[in-house]
Amino acid sequence: MRGAFSDVSAERVEPGWEDRWKEFHRPETAGGLWIGPPWIEPPVGENAVVVDPGRAFGTGAHPTTRACIELLARLDRGSLLDAGCGSGVVSVAAARLGFAPIVAVDVDEVAVEIARETATANGVAVNAFRADVLVDELPRADVLVANIELAIVEQLLERVACSIAVTSGYLHSEMPTERGWARIDRVELDGWAADVLRAR
Question: Which pLDDT does position 20 carry in this prediction?
Answer without folding.
Answer: 45
